């Protein structure tokens, strides 16, 4: 996976802040096929002895594969098709993985970056170098408005993630920290759901249900309660 991303990486020459237009079909297909194969293996992998990371998960975490995939997309034209592919990829991982993937920042951080990029026109990308992704240092990219199909997939994933938070409270604090990494006001999931709660149809229903799940957490978690009181209009 890393080899195919590096082979098709337009930032290898050092001009990482430039946009390079649409990704050729054969290039996108090659990356997608390799990544899908890796993810299917990851979903089937069990935890190691004593709950240790499996070999594939360890590789994904240590090599920061998910962030490299997201940044590879940003260096080109981040089309709706690419957004849909990556949103569905995370939905599949969250639903079917046998290991607790969201506990690992190299998986959670690019997920939050993707959610932010798919929500509306925004500028995304890391602001400082990291050991695991030095070639991406300083990359920023303006992402255009998403289509209704992307918004529907986004809300579906947000709804799924809220169910995860209810079942596994240990993930909640990680989401708060990752939200801060993205410049959000403490809790990105909450902020992303608000624009959709008055929508008709499935999108609106899922957004309202997800928000209700978050509100239910406020009675058990002071971080959620404090965010709702201090950063929203739900408590006048």
From TrEMBL:
InterPro entries, per database record? FHIP (IPR019384)
Record-linked PANTHER family: FHF COMPLEX SUBUNIT HOOK-INTERACTING PROTEIN 1A (PTHR21705:SF6), RAI16 PROTEIN-RELATED (PTHR21705)
| Protein's name according to its UniProt entry | Uncharacterized protein
Task: Supply the source organism for this entry.
Answer: Cirrhinus mrigala (Mrigala)
């Amino acid at each position: 996976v890393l080899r195919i991303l590096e082979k098709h990486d337009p930032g290898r020459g050092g001009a990482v802040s430039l946009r390079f237009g649409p990704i050729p079909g054969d290039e996108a297909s090659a990356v997608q096929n390799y990544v899908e194969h890796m993810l299917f293996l990851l979903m089937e992998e069990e935890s190691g002895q004593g709950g240790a990371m499996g070999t594939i998960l360890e590789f994904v975490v240590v090599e920061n594969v998910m962030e490299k995939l997201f940044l590879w997309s940003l260096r080109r034209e981040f089309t709706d098709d690419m957004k849909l592919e990556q949103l569905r990829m995370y939905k599949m991982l969250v639903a079917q993985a046998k290991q607790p993937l969201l506990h690992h920042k190299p998986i959670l951080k690019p997920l939050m970056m993707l959610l932010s990029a798919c929500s509306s026109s925004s500028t995304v990308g890391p602001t400082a170098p990291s050991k695991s992704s030095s070639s991406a240092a300083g990359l920023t990219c303006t992402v255009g408005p998403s289509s209704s199909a992307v918004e529907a997939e986004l809300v579906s994933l947000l709804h799924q993630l809220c169910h995860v938070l209810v079942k596994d409270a240990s993930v909640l604090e990680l989401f708060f920290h990752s939200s801060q990494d993205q410049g959000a006001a403490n809790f990105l999931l909450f902020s992303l759901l608000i624009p959709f709660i008055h929508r008709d149809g499935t999108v609106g229903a899922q957004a309202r249900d997800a928000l209700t799940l978050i509100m239910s957490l406020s009675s058990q978690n002071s971080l959620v309660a404090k965010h709702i009181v201090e950063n929203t209009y739900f408590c006048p």
